[in-house]
Each structure stands twice: as structure tokens, then as C-alpha cells.
Automatic annotation (TrEMBL):
Gene3D superfamilies hit by this protein: 3.40.50.2300, Winged helix-like DNA-binding domain superfamily/Winged helix DNA-binding domain
Keyword Aminoacyl-tRNA synthetase: no
Segments forming domain Response regulatory: 17-131
Protein name: Response regulator transcription factor
PROSITE patterns cross-referenced by the UniProt entry: HTH_LUXR_1, HTH_LUXR_2, RESPONSE_REGULATORY
Presence of keyword Cell cycle: no
């Protein structure tokens, strides 16, 4: 059973939250109280499965995850979340950590790796860094989605012209490569700039990079 009732309120889904996963109820309670004392929303769970079953992982925030969990190793759970496509930042806690374990966690994208017992300020600083990382990831994802939506309005020919333009080809070269007239290239190029809401070729190149072109 999770400790969601320890949360001070039922916050809006866009409010950052700390999801605490630890099988020790005293640690869960202490951490929830710490975060609530700083007006940071926090909810705790006794296992990884408890988190999966009850948490809204689409919310902004981070996961404070114990390495030693019943039924699931915290590092393996980190990889499981990644396979699910969840990018919520993770901070690891452990009373049995060692260097190889820490390295593995950080290489897999963990924000921090804290050995118990840790200072309140250390965990608060780690969560602040995790919240910032989460904001950056979400902003980048939103930018990517917006550009992909614009690109979906392009015709196949406009996609070809766009790819050629961002490679730095001149209209005459594009016309030759595609077997069309230069006037037609100019028309397609104008449509690309308008549909992609590109203010300049440099802006178009930036958006193309987001698309992986």
C-alpha cells in the first residue's frame, strides 16, 4: 500500500512531485515530511511495483529510489522505466552502495547517488537538480513535438526540398537533383518556409536538426 495520504494535498498534475520508493516506512515518512516542510509535493511507495501501479509517471518531478528493494533491484528498475519510455529523473539512495553501483547508475542517467545517511540539504539539492533536468527534458520534448507537427503538413516533395535546402544546396542544384524546374523549386521552398514557420534558412536548419535531418 502506498503512502499517498501523507501528501499535504492533491496537487495539479503540472506541479512537480517527488516519488519516494523505499521499503523502510520510517524513511518514507521522514522524507515525505522533509519535502512537505519545504512545500515540495511528495508521495511515497514501498516498492517499485507499488509505484508503477499507483503513480502518475507523466507528472513533472523525479523519483527518489532506494537501490535495495523487495522484488526488484533499483538499478534494474531504472532500466525498466527507460524501456517504458519514462524519462523522469532518478536519484538513488543506498545504505550499501559501492563505486561500481554508483557508476552504473550515473551512466544510465541518474541525477545523483546518495549514501544513507545523507544530510537534508544534500537530498534537497539533488531534488532541485532533478526538477531542473525534468523541466529541460520536457521543454525539449515539447519543442520536438511542435516541429514534428509542422513537418507533418509538408508534402513528400516539400520534404525533399527541405532536406536539400538544409544541406546548403542552391535552387538550381535542387532542381537538377529532383528533375524539376527552378521555378517549381522556389514554390516548394516558399511553402516549406511558410509551413515550418521558419524565419530564415538558419531557423529551418535548426528545426530540421530537431527532426534528425
Amino acid at each position: 500500500m502506498n503512502d499517498a495520504k501523507k501528501s499535504a494535498k492533491a496537487p495539479a498534475n503540472n506541479t512537480p512531485v517527488v516519488y519516494i520508493v523505499d521499503d523502510d516506512p520510517s524513511i518514507r515518512e521522514a522524507l515525505v515530511d522533509l519535502f512537505l516542510s519545504t512545500r515540495t509535493d511528495a508521495t511515497s511507495f514501498e516498492s517499485a511495483q507499488d509505484l508503477l501501479d499507483n503513480a502518475d509517471l507523466k507528472r513533472p518531478g523525479c523519483i527518489l529510489l532506494d537501490v535495495r528493494l523487495p522484488g526488484a533491484n533499483g538499478l534494474d528498475f531504472q532500466l525498466h522505466l527507460e524501456k517504458l519510455g519514462n524519462q523522469m529523473p532518478i536519484i538513488f539512495m543506498t545504505g550499501h552502495g559501492d563505486i561500481p553501483m554508483s557508476v552504473r547508475a550515473m551512466k544510465a542517467g541518474a541525477v545523483d547517488f546518495l549514501a544513507k545517511p545523507f544530510r537534508d540539504q544534500d537530498i534537497l539539492d539533488a531534488v532541485a537538480a532533478a526538477f531542473q533536468k525534468d523541466r529541460e527534458v520536457r521543454l525539449q520534448s515539447a519543442a520536438n513535438d511542435a516541429v514534428a507537427k509542422l513537418a507533418s503538413t509538408l508534402t513528400p516533395r516539400e520534404h525533399e526540398v527541405m532536406a536539400a535546402v538544409v544541406k546548403g544546396l542552391m535552387n538550381k542544384q535542387i532542381a537538377f537533383n529532383l528533375g524539376i524546374s527552378e521555378i517549381t523549386v522556389k514554390l516548394h521552398r516558399g511553402n516549406v518556409m511558410r509551413k515550418m514557420e521558419a524565419r530564415s534558412v538558419a531557423d529551418l536548419v535548426r528545426k530540421a536538426e530537431l527532426l534528425g535531418l
